[in-house]
Amino acid sequence: MPERHGWFRSTVPRRFRPTPILSDNLIPGRKSLSDDDTHSPVVQARVPATLHAKLQALADRRHISLSKLLREAIHEFMERKENPA
Q: Could you tell me the superkingdom of the organism this chain comes from (predicted)?
């Protein structure tokens, strides 16, 4: 029986696999959004489909991801709450 090395090695052809040195340096996820390079927490929320479509359309018009749009919106919301006019 062949030795199994996880789903990646069993499903990805050898020519597309990273070299051992490269794979040792791969870090899952994206670059940290935190100032101190620590793990960036994930925030999730369920929204109605109509709101999701409007948010996605706005993100598309601005050529940014939905995640970036939501980060900006949350940041602006917190700024207004912390510094009321």
A: Bacteria
